[in-house]
Each structure stands twice: as C-alpha cells, then as structure tokens.
Amino acid sequence: MDNKSKWIKAIRPKTLTGALAPVLIGGMLALHDVGDSFHWLPFILCVAFALVMQIDANLANDYYDYLKGSDDEERLGPKRAVASGWITPQAMKRALWIVTVIACLIGLPLAYLGGWWLIGIGIACVVFCFLYSTLFSYIAMGDLLVLIFFGIVPVGFTYYLQTGEWTLPVTLCAIANGLVTDNLLIVNNYRDIDQDRKHNKRTLVVLIGRQSAFWLYVALGVIAVILSIIALYLLGCSIWMPLLGVYLGIHFLTAARMHRRIGRDLNLTLAETARNILIFALILCLVIGLI
Questions:
Q1: What tens digit of pLDDT does each residue of 154-190 get?
Q2: Is the dihedral of CA 19, 94, 140, 183 positive or negative?
C-alpha cells in the first residue's frame, strides 16, 4: 500500500457524509428564508470547516484508540492506520496538529463574517473533537456529542451566518440530522460491543445491550422524520412531506439487514448508514427547496 492510500484510509472518506449533511440542511434552510441574499462564501467555508473537522476527529480517534490499546488484532471494524502499522504514531500526531491548524484557519473568516464570539464555538469544536476520542466515547457520552456537533452546531450556525437568527424549524432539523447521524455511532458500537466491554469502553450500546441498541437505531430514524415533518409544517410545507418516506423505507431496510448481521458483516451496515445520512439530508433539502 502506497503512502497516499494509507492516509486516505486513515481519513475514512465514507464518514464525511456525516459532516456534509448538516451544512447542506442549514444552507438550504437559509436559502429558503433569505433567497437572493444568500452568500456563498460563508456557506463554502462552513462546508470546508465541517469536512476538515471530521477528518481531524477521524485521525484523533485512530491515534488515541491506539494509545489506549482499543484497536487490537480482534478488531472487527475497518483497520486503523496506526494500530496496523501503516502510519507511525509520530506521523499521525503531526498530521493531527496540521489538520487542526487548517480547521482553525478556515474558521477565522467565519468569525469575522458572523461575529468574533464564534471563535468560542470553533474552539469548542476542536476541544470536543479530541475529548470524544480521549474521554467521552469511553463514558457513554459520544452520542450526545454527535447530536450537538453533527446536528445542532453545524445546522444552526450555517443558518445563523446567513440570517443572524435561529428559528424553531432550524432547531428541529438540526436535532433530526443529529439523530440520523448518531445511528452511525450506534452501528459502530453495536458491532464492537464485545471488544468494548473487554477494553472497559462503556459506550451507550454497552450500557443498554445489543437488542435495545437495535431498537434505538430504528427509533432514531423514525423520530428524525417526525421532527422533520413538524419543521416542514412550520415552514408551510405539506404536499411534499411524503418524500421523507423514501428515507424511512431505506432506513427500515438497513435496520432489517443490521438485525441479521454479525461481526464484520456489520461493516456493510456502517456503510449503508453513512449513505442513509446523505439520503436524509438530500431529501430534506429537496423538500425545503420545493416549498
């Protein structure tokens, strides 16, 4: 494997849909409300910041799980770069610093455009990016961070940078996307439940058990659709709401496959769930655009 391929695997491109989806939703909500006053520069910067922060989180997870010994030879998920010996710990640590600096440089213009107090939000994104891998994923707090930093923060602040406001429909859509994205973490921890118990990694799935985690996976998709329908109703939409049923059908199909799979086969469910996040965002954006 060449050096480029090693870093691409470490970045985990399939997970980037989780970073892109909320910015698309926030941007479409803003476009709906401001129309021709929509500014593309802050939107593009939001997309770039979200993608770079996701890469940063992936590299941090790779590096710190290696240090904690969580990624051993029994790992069921995709191989990790440092634990597999593809990338040295020193090189990964250096890459973490570089990517973090890039994210901060992207975030500074957003603070200039939306108010310098937004630097605090950027700092929180960076801090919790590292706290997720070093602490919160080990004490069943990872799901809450996903809801906040893959739902509320990116949807809400992408919208805020365009409008200077924060509305109830925006909050509902933000929570909905956070719940859909959290399913990616649930599948990952559902697959790794035995290994996580072995390493004393107390994820939410470890606490509630595999069966309850499966039904939580199903429920989060349903709740996300319900919240989205309420948001669309508040925005004045009714006729196009049934399009969300397309996502719901795909979600149920993925859940059915998840229930039949074990071990490494659940990596297929992980990829399908990442795809479903983007499908949800695109359908929601389409419906908002049709209002």
A1: 999 999 999 999 999 999 999 999 999 999 999 999 9
A2: positive
